[in-house]
Design brief:
The chain contains 10 helices and 10 strands. The chain is an alpha/beta fold and 296 residues long. The protein has 2 domains: 13-108 and 186-288, Glycoside hydrolase/deacetylase (TIM Barrel, Alpha-Beta Barrel), CATH 3.20.20.370; 113-182, no CATH class.
Length: 296
Amino acid sequence: MKIYGSITGRKHVILGFHRICSNGLPVNSFDTCPTIELKLFREILIYVKQHYNILPLSEFYKIRDLDKPLAAITFDDGWRDNYDLAFPVLQGLKVPATIFVTTGKIGTDEPFWQQMLGKTFKEFMGMGKSREQENFKKLLGIEEKVVLTQDFLEKTTHQWKSLSSADLKEKVDLLRNYCKDFRGTRCFLNIEEIQEMLRFGIEFGTHSINHLILSKEPDAIVETELSGSKKTLEKVVGKLVDMLAYPDGGLNDRVVEIARDLGYKVGCTTKAGYACKRDDPMRLPRLGYPLEFTSR
């Protein structure tokens, strides 16, 4: 295994993760959220620890001018498996990390619309004609003759991401009728888990309230998403929160300016790359699993 090229150049890196799954369990084909097996996650951390000085992100962004290569570990969304599976590994290896929490999802059992859409796609794939399938295709706005495939799921996911928050909400409200069996199984970190991880030294930042793609939203909604998530998380952790990760990497000059005005000092993107001293702390690049920083 190696980290995205060579470490001989003493390049600093922020690694970005999302979900962790138990060893041997297949990743659900309908879940478009990047997921890594626990065993591989541990191997990556061991490798990084051997070659990098791993720092909390709050320290990493301040001292990137050192010669020794530095690394920071981050997670987006705030999934429950970050506590159940990743946290014991972080504890055992004494590795700090930062988790960016979607505050509207804290302690809830409903995943993001992407998981709901994918699950419904999977259920209808290969099925014969039915009234439910016909209604589902109407929701998607596609012809009845269209065959539901994994490729079409990815295309539809991309199309839905381009919708305004109001149009997307209308579709998601209808989609919930197909996803009732998600209920009862908590998907995201709750307050007690966040506070326990905080005592160990895990840092927390925001990932907005509702995981909206901020670059597509008007200023008022951007401000609400970033200020509301900041206030909520500060109540949970009992201290100032000044780090965020932009949902789906959706940022532009306007979004960054609003975030700065609200008191954010660090912003993580989905732009792939190493981190260096000249980087704007509000536009930090990351290397995200699986394609950008590992090979086997």
